[in-house]
């Protein structure tokens, strides 16, 4: 299984709107691609969100990145640009991405640890 994680830091004035957009639109649409078997969205702190996507195989993640991610990123940027009074390209949010391979049962600390 492959974990694809995205952390998003939104400006405080956009946090509620971004959270609503993620829950009601963005994440359900990504799930409908069939590339992920599970998606978890959480608020890490005010304005900071974490989305963890679980793909069954590397091929599923590759298919998402190649066939779907560019459109979803563009839609998200368009959404932000419509809600942000931005200057010099500042749309009110920053993003970071991490990809991990999860090997169940390999961690000495916990049978189901996904951070090895």
Map the helices and strands.
Elements: E1 2-10, H1 15-31, E2 38-45, E3 48-55, H2 58-83, E4 93-101
Antiparallel strand pairs: 1-3, 1-4, 2-3
Report on the structure:
The chain has about 120 residues and is α+β, with helices and mostly antiparallel strands. It has one domain: 2-Layer Sandwich (Alpha-Beta Plaits), CATH 3.30.70.100. A four-stranded antiparallel sheet has the order 2-3-1-4, with helices on one face. A hairpin with a 2-residue loop joins strand 2 and strand 3. The radius of gyration is 15 Å and the shape is globular.
Short description:
The protein is 37% helix and 29% strand. The protein is of the alpha+beta class and 116 residues long.
| Beta-strand content estimate | 25-35%
**CATH architecture, please?**
2-Layer Sandwich
Alpha-carbon Rg, integer: 15 Å
The residue-averaged pLDDT reads: 78
Helical content (DSSP H or I, runs of 4+): 25-40%
SSE pattern: EHEEHE
User: What is the count of distinct domains?
Assistant: 1
> Could you state the oligomeric state of the chains shown?
single chain
Task: Report the biggest beta sheet as strand number plus sense, adding barrel if it closes.
Answer: 4 strands, antiparallel
Tertiary shape: globular
From the structure above, extract its key features:
single chain, alpha+beta, Alpha-Beta Plaits, 116 residues, 2 helices, 4 strands
